[in-house]
Amino acid sequence: MDVEAFQLLVCRGMFLGTYTDQGPKTCGKCVASEDHEMQDMATFASWGVDYVKVDSCNRDVEPEHWAKFRDAINATGRPIVFSIIAQGQKDSWTWGNVTGNLWRSTGDIMNSFGGFTSNLDRQIQTC
């Protein structure tokens, strides 16, 4: 994207978000942020990123993995919204609020009524 076009979007109130994974690869098999949390968050902040979604496709879910991202984001000094995608593993609703700004408490929603009700049942269990 050309810089002038991007600046125009920002001036009109648009926000910039990006995506990475806490493992070595993203869900789409692209290079991700494992062991590069500080570097990647600093780069995102320098780009003016406002929102970062960190997935968990290629690494075990452990709360301390996301704490590295939280600390790296805080070190940038830029207010970046941090979205944790832990698919509800390791009871993410019990630690997500002290680590990120929003977090998933279920898996992906499938394109079916059964997929919807499965996630709904999971939500009810967390209450």
Describe this structure in words.
By secondary structure, the protein is of the alpha/beta class. The protein contains 5 helices and 4 strands, in the order αβαβαβαβα. It has a 4-stranded parallel beta sheet, covered by helices on one side. Strand 2, helix 3 and strand 3 form a beta-alpha-beta unit. Helix 2 crosses helix 3 and helix 3 runs parallel beside helix 4. The mean pLDDT is 87.
pLDDT averaged residue by residue: 87
Residue runs with pLDDT of under 50 for 5 or more positions: none
C-alpha termini separation: 43 Å
Helix coverage percent? 40-55%
Approximate strand percentage = 5-15%
| Main pleated sheet | 4 strands, parallel
Rg, alpha carbons? 16 Å
| Overall number of strands | 4
